[in-house]
Amino acid sequence: MSNQNDPCNNYGTDPTSIRAANCASEGLAPDFVATQSVTVVTSGGAQSGLKAETSKNFTAGIIVQPDFGAAVGEISLAVDYYRIRVNNGVSRAGAVNILQLCYDDPQFRAGGGFCRLVDPRNSTSQGLTVNDSFVNLATDIVRGIDYTLRYARDVGPGKFRATAQVSQFLEQSSKLFKDDPLDDINGILTAPKFAGSFDASYTLNKWKVRYGVEWVDATSSYKFLGLDPATTNLKLDTPDYFLHNASVQYAGDSFEVTVGVRNLFDRDPPQISSGNINRVGNAPLYSGYDYVGRTLFFNVSKSF
Fold first, then answer.
1. Burial of 19 by CB count in 10 Å (0-12 exposed, 13-18 middle, 19+ buried)?
2. Rounded CA gap, 36 and 259, in Å?
3. Could you give phi then psi for residue 95, rounded to 5 degrees?
4. pTM for the whole thing?
5. 255-262 vs 295-302, strand pairing mode
6. What's the pLDDT score for residue 138?
7. Residue 92: phi, psi to the nearest 5?
8. Is the four-CA dihedral 38, 43, 47, 50 of positive or negative sign?
9. Which of 67, 87, 152, 184 could be a cystine partner for 74, CB 3.0 to 4.6 Å?
10. H-helix or E-strand containing 95?
11. Nearest to residue 285, comparing CAs of 223, 222, 229, 219?
12. Residue 174 bridge partners (DSSP)
């Protein structure tokens, strides 16, 4: 890995940062520039001490489906609670990520954490060696509640259906080593507390018209990183994000034709500052965001 990935390169440009203090503690000058590439050691399998991951899952749910008659329509509400705990989950943190997390840690070498994966600097060249092997996560916990509301009713000569789904995350926490504290990232960038969707359709004979909305809750990493949004120049939050989709479908006796639009209003993903999280361009890397833009699609299927 390039010597440019050394987190202490020219650390003196921000002398009050945690990283500057950590680099200085290693005896490096403020204008230090690494001259040796960062060595990355990777391994996997039993020889690296990997163990099989285990998990404990708990789920509980309830479905309410009252009968209000045809005049009101069919209504059902499902609520499901889940808790998933994974022990010894296998993961690689990534060499660049390991270095950033280590040198930005207020505890640095004394605190363990990701610095355990960074060997002491070479006393002659000041070069770094990072152990980016597959390791077992001590704990990975996800807790949440899923809500699903469905409604259906005959309207005129056709059938109207609507489904609203919301996922509420109560906890998204993990730790790399057994004696590390749990880091709950619930609500920070790429880990929203809520996500949901709404889908409505109307079916008339062989035709179906559909409209859908996908929602990702607003996120913020300021508090998690101990930063004040009023004083930092970093952009580390995102607003609520909505994607709209629409389609028309015709179902024949042995074929279906669907025409539609994804990201109807051509909504761009939110933008954040660089250097803090995995990104696509300047947008956080998250499955709920659309990076393509408005897209027309045409699908044809036939059965034989």
1. middle
2. 56
3. -60, -45
4. 0.76
5. antiparallel
6. 78
7. -120, 130
8. positive
9. 152
10. helix 95-103
11. 219
12. 140, 183
pLDDT mean values, one per 10 residues, the chain (304 residues): 89 90 94 92 70 91 94 96 91 84 88 84 93 82 98 96 98 84 92 98 96 98 89 92 98 94 97 81 92 96 90
Residue 22: φ, ψ to 5°: -70, -40
How far from chain centre, in Å, is Cα 284? 9
Two structure tokens written together for 167: 């996922």
d(C-alpha 7, C-alpha 20), whole Å: 9
Are the C-beta atoms of residues 193 and 168 closer than 8 Å to each other? yes
CB 154 within 8 A of CB 136: no
Amino acid found at 301: S
Phi, psi of 26 (to 5 degrees): -90, 5
- Type of residue at 236: L
Side-chain-side CA neighbours of residue 106 (13 Å)? 3
- Angle (CA) 102-132-115 rounded to 5° is 20
- H and E: helices and strands count for the chain: 3, 18
Tally Cβ neighbours within 10 Å of residue 274: 11
